[in-house]
Every structure is written in C-alpha cells, then in structure tokens.
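Support request, please re-run this one:
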Amino acid sequence: MNGIRRRAGIGLAVTSLVVPMTVALTAAPAQAASCNVTTGPYQKQVEKFLGRPVDGKQSLADCKAIQAFQAKHGITPTQGYAGTITWRTMSTMLAQKAAGSNPNKAGKCPTNKGRIACVDLTRQLSWIQDGSRLKYGPVPVRTGRDGSETRTGAKKIYWRNINHWSTLYHVSMPYAQFFDGGQAFHSVTKSMWNPPGSAGCVNMTQKDAKAYWNLLRNGDDVFVYGRKPGT
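Re-run finished. Output below.
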C-alpha cells in the first residue's frame, strides 16, 4: 500500500510487566521432581529476583522457589538450579519492566513511518506506534530460537488470517499477521518467557495478538531489531 495511514484505534495501552518477586512454593506440580541443592552460578541474582534471602548459597527453600518459577515458564530441567537459562529469563523480565511506557527511548524503531509495529529482540518486547506516539504496549513477546531467529530489518504486513492453521508445523496460529516469509505475529498459549523460543514467528498472548489484529492492516510497517539473548 502507498502512503501513510493513521487510524484511530486503541489508545495508549501500556501492559504492566509484573516481575514475580515472590513465588509460592506450592505453585508448581514439577516440584515433585528431584531438587538440585547445588549452588548455581547466578545464585545471588536469582535469590534477589525471587525475594529470597540473598546469601549466594542454595537451600531447599531456594530450590523450591526456583522450581516454581521454572515450572511456570516451561524452563527445563525443572530442578531448581540457578543456571544460565533461568537467570537469562529473569534478566529479560527485568529489562522489559525497565522499558516502562517509553520502549523507544533510544529511538531505534523508526518514527517517520506513521503506524508501525516495533519488535525489539534484545528485550523481547513489541509495541505499536504512530510516529513517535505510543499506541499499544510495550508487551512481552516470544521470538525465534537459536537457528530459527526472527529476521531483522524493515518489513510490511502482507497477509492476515484470523484463524490460520500452519501446514508446516501443524499448529493453530490465531490472529496471524505475516510480515516476512513465514514469520508472523500470532497468539500462543505458552508463557512469553518459555525457552528456547518460536520457529521464527513473534508469539504473543491472545489479548495482545487480538489488539495487534485490530490496530494493524496489510501494508503497515514492521521493524525488527536487536538480538535475542541466547541466539
């Protein structure tokens, strides 16, 4: 489509990213699994994130709290160890929270395109803006895993299918909006922090994918930048 289109839509809708500073010890079914009481390389950071006493030494209570977090977000093995993937997930959550209501503070997503969907792979965040005005988000997203990264650069939405079915992966892709080959925005039922990531699409919660569907149209700009941690 030619020209810049601005539409009235959903107003500023900043999603609050609540970082779980405490985790209920009875929340995770996976706690029945063996508990790794070895002190992990990110023990202090993980303890602080979870609101545990920060002594840098793994305890059974620490392990159970870490297990609950891992089970909630599909981190395996779910053994309560303060390892690289667990801390990377927590670190991403902290970066997302720090973005607040000004995700484009560094000006990395173009502000001269009118309506545009921005995707920051580094912070695993996406939002929609009109020029420099934030229209929706920022919201957490789940992008391509190592080897199947979401491709960076300037794109445009070229095809939309509200009830798309992937014949390649044999899965439902509700609110699919394709912007680069087989890569699209669409909803999933997984946690947005579930590693290792998608097959290249930008996964979203149903609420956010539906909002994107209502705000975007074929021809709208998409800009993907950064690098997902772990890729």
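Residues 1-31 have pLDDT under 50 and may be disordered. Helices lie at 43-49, 60-73, 84-99, 206-215.
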